[in-house]
Design goal:
Blueprint lengths: L4 H6 L8 H16 L5 H13 L3 H8 L9 E4 L2 E4 L4 H5 L5 E4 L6 E5 L6 E2 L10 E6 L2 E6 L6 E3 L2 E2 L4 E3 L4 E4 L2 E7 L3
Parallel strand pairs: 3-12, 4-5
Antiparallel strand pairs: 1-2, 2-3, 4-6, 6-7, 7-10, 8-9, 8-11, 11-12
Helix pairs in contact: 2-3, 2-4, 3-4
Length: about 180
């Protein structure tokens, strides 16, 4: 198959962006925002630029100053959220892992607000979305009056409910698989 003259002359920078490449760039932006490398304003501006990008060079410009992902761990106090957003795993529908915390803290707040114990950079997550509270029987998940709801294994949480490793929890449109920290 012959390579068109305009591609040969301009190189791979002018090749049209695929949906998978765009999703990888968006995941890298989300990770950068969660890690505190981007302000909310910069994050929003770059997401718009990534969605408008037509060629590879446009997409690379949006994420050029962010570090390359290495299966990184984002820590929010004693909570961990595994943030390896590989396209293959994402396409198969596997949610990232949310590790239940250890330590003496009894309550963790989850939301979009920077002051939360676990900050989620997704517009469907409320500023103060949900809480995880340590109880004698384990961890209780409660919704804090969020706009888009908290779900446990697909069911909307209306009252505090016990969660265990292996459960699927959703905050707005963001879903995680609960896990215990290895001892």
């Amino acid at each position: 198959m012959a390579v068109p003259d305009d591609i040969r002359a301009n190189g791979p920078d002018h090749i049209r962006v695929s949906d998978a490449e765009r999703e990888q760039a968006l995941a890298k932006l989300r990770d950068g925002f969660v890690e505190g490398r981007l302000t909310h304003e910069t994050f929003a501006h770059r997401v718009e630029a990534a969605l408008r990008a037509r060629a590879n060079r446009d997409l690379r410009t949006v994420v050029a100053d962010l570090p390359r992902p290495r299966g990184m761990w984002v820590r929010a106090k004693e909570m961990c959220l595994h943030a390896s957003h590989t396209t293959d795993r994402w396409l198969r529908g596997w949610p990232p892992v949310l590790t239940l915390p250890r330590g003496s803290q009894l309550r963790f707040i989850i939301g979009r607000e920077a002051a939360c114990d676990m900050t989620l950079a997704d517009e469907t997550v409320s500023r103060w979305h949900a809480s995880l509270e340590r109880a004698t029987s384990g961890w209780l998940l409660a919704d804090l009056g969020s706009m888009n709801g908290t779900r446990l294994n697909g069911w909307r949480v209306t009252d505090p409910v016990l969660v265990r490793p292996g459960d699927m929890v959703s905050f707005g449109a963001v879903t995680y698989l609960l896990s215990e920290r290895p001892r």
